Amino acid sequence: QVQLVESGGGLVQAGGSLRLSCAASGRTLSSYAMGWFRQAPGKERDFVARISWNGGSTYYADSVKGRFTISRDNAKNTVYLQMNSLKPEDTAVYYCAASLILMGATTRYPYWGQGTQVTVSS
Q: How many CA atoms lie within 13 A of 28 on its CB side?
């Protein structure tokens, strides 16, 4: 079973950038397709982006397309989410998740991290 730990969240002004990291342990990250999700207060957890095992396939929610980039470094057992041109509506707790199966825009990933807070001020 894989364990996931997110980091890199924080407070940033609108228009700024952050890079989130998701470090995996317990199992080799290359065995898993990975996703990023976010949950704003009082709202459901939403899909943000996902990446295939070797990084050859990525998929984004329309709300972040062109601003966010998901990537991975399997040698470092880490997945990243580069977030540019941040908006106040991007404020949420961001979670990474892992699945042995390549998933679409769904929250049905079996393994989750604890989340990292991203706050974008206007």
A: 6
Query: What's the average pLDDT block by block, 10 residues per block, for the chain (122 residues)?
Result: 96 98 91 96 96 94 98 96 98 97 89 97 95
33-39 and 111-112 beta bridge pairing: unpaired
Do 34 and 81 meet the contact criterion of CB atoms below 8 Å apart?
A: no
Among residues 25, 38, 10, which one has the least CA distance to residue 78?
Answer: 25
Cβ density class 73-109: b for 16+ within 10 Å, e for less:
ebeebbbbbebeebeeebbbbbbbbbbeeebeeeeeb
Among the listed residues 92, 70, 72, 67, the one whose alpha carbon sits nearest the alpha carbon of residue 10: 92
